[in-house]
Specification:
Blueprint: E1 12-18, E2 22-28, E3 34-41, E4 53-54, H1 56-71, E5 79-86, E6 91-94, E7 104-105, H2 113-123, H3 125-132, H4 141-151, H5 154-158, E8 161-164, H6 165-174, E9 178-180, H7 181-184, E10 190-191, E11 196-197, H8 199-205, E12 214-216, E13 221-224, H9 227-233, E14 240-246, H10 247-254, E15 262-267, E16 271-277, E17 287-290, E18 297-303, H11 307-317, H12 325-333, E19 343-345, E20 363-365, H13 373-399, E21 404-408, H14 415-425, E22 429-432, H15 437-450, H16 456-463, E23 466-470, H17 475-499
Parallel strand pairs: 1-5, 5-14, 9-12, 15-21, 21-22
Antiparallel strand pairs: 1-2, 2-3, 4-7, 6-8, 10-11, 13-14, 15-16, 16-18, 17-18, 19-20, 22-23
Length: about 500
Amino acid sequence: MSVRPDRAVRDLVLGVDSSTTACKVLAYDASGQVVAEGRASMVLENPAIGAWEQDAEGWWRAFCEASRACVALVDPARFRGLAVASQRETFVVTDRAGIPLAKALVWMDHRCGDEVSRATCELGEARLHELTGKPPSTTPSLYKWLGQRTRAPELAASVGKVLDVHAFLVWRLTGSPSTSLAAADPMALIDMRQRLWSDELLTFAGLTQAQLPELVEVGTAVGTVSMKAASESGLPEGLVVVAGAGDGQAAGLGVGITGPGTAYLNLGTAVVSGVLSSTYRYDRSCRTLFGAIPGTYFLETVLQGGTFTINWLCEKLLGRPLASLGELELQACSLPAGSAGVTLVPYWNGVMNPYWDHGASGIVVGLRGEHGPSHLYRALLEGIAFEQRLHTSGVESLAGPVTEMVVTGGGSASDLWCQILADVLGKPIVRAASSEATALGAAMIAGTATGLVPTFEDAARTMSRRRERFLPGPNAITYKQLFELKYRRIYPALREILRGH
C-alpha cells in the first residue's frame, strides 16, 4: 500500500549541482547519506579561440533528466525542499519571458580583455575591486557581458533579463527569477558592502535592476515547483525551492567548513580553494565572495587550469585516453620529488590571483632528452600544488593561518596528488568522504531552511564526513626549496616575454 503524500515522512532534501559539463540531482537524508541520484551531461562549446559557450536550454534539459532519474528511485512525497548550487560567472541573456536570445557565455570565456581594460580605465581598478571584491579580470560576467554587447550590439536593445545559472533554473522551477547573493556575486555587479545590485556598475554596463533577477539571502524560500515544472522534471508540484549558492561556496559547506582555520580545496576542472571570514575584506591574493552560510564571506583562490590541464596533457599532447592516467600515475610515483628537473607553471587558461593576467600562458622548463610523459604528468601535479601554495600563503596573510585543507573533486581520488599537496603545502590534506561536495552543500542549505537540520553547524556535523589524512613527509623539505628558489620566480621572470608573444 502506497503512503499518501500528506502522511509521508518528509525526511529528504534535494541538492542540485548544475556544473559546467553536467547536472546532478541527489537526495540526502539528515545524516548526509545519498538515498537517490540522477545525472545528465551538458554540452560545452568552443566555437573560436577564447570562446566558451552553452545552450542555456541545455541547463534545464539536463536538470529535468537528472531530476527524473533521481525521483524515480524514491517516493517524492519524502522531499522537504530543494536548493541549487550552480557554475558561477556563466550567464545568459533572455527576452522578458526567459527565452534565451543568444548562447550563454561560460566562466571560461575570455574574449573580453579589451572590456576589462576599458572598465579599469573608466572606473579604476581600486574602485572595481572595492565594490565587487574581485580585481578586474576576464572571469566575472560584467566584462563578458560588455564583450558580448560589443560583438552583438542588437542584444542591448532586446535584452529582457541577464541571468546567472541559478536564476535561470529557479525561474523555470517556480515561474519567478530569483538568485542568491552567493550565486550572483561572481557576476561582479553587486556592491558587496551594501549587498545589493550596484547602480554604479549597472549604469556602466547599460543594464537596469529590472533586467536582473531578484537578489535574496542564501536559504530563502523563493517559491515552489510549478505544475509545468513538475510535469517536466518529475518533482512534486508545490515542493519548496530554496536559494542556494555558487558551486564553490556550496562545496566549502559540503566538506563541513563553518568557521576559520580550515580551507576547502576542490581538484576539479579548475582548482578552487577557500576559507571563511566573518568580515568583508579584499586583497589581490584572492577574490571575495559571499559565503554559503548567511553573514559570512568566502576568500577564494582559483586556478583555471586544474584537471582541465590533465585532460589536455592526455588527449591533446600525448594522444592518450584519460583511462591511461592510471599507468601514468604509477610511473610518476617512482619519480623523485621535482620530476627530475621538470617544472610546470599551469597557466593554460591564464591566471587569476595573485597576478590577474588573462594573457598568461603555461610554462614548462627543464625538459631534457631523458624525460617522458610520466615526468610531465608528475610535474603537472607538482605545478598545481606549487601554485596552490602561492595562493594559500596569500590568503593566510589576509585571514590568518590555515591548519588543514579538506580536498574534494575528481583529482582528490589520486593518492599521489594528495601526498604531493601535503608535502608542498606543508599541511595536512584530508580527503572528504563525499565526492559530491557541491550537491551536499546545496542539500545542507535546503535542509537547514526546511527544518531537516536545526543549523548549518548541525548540518556540517551530521551530514559531512572526512576520510584519509595525508601528512607532510620527507619530500616537504625538497619541495619548499623548489618553491622558493625556482617555481615562484619563473612567471615573474618571464611575464613580459610572454606578453609579447
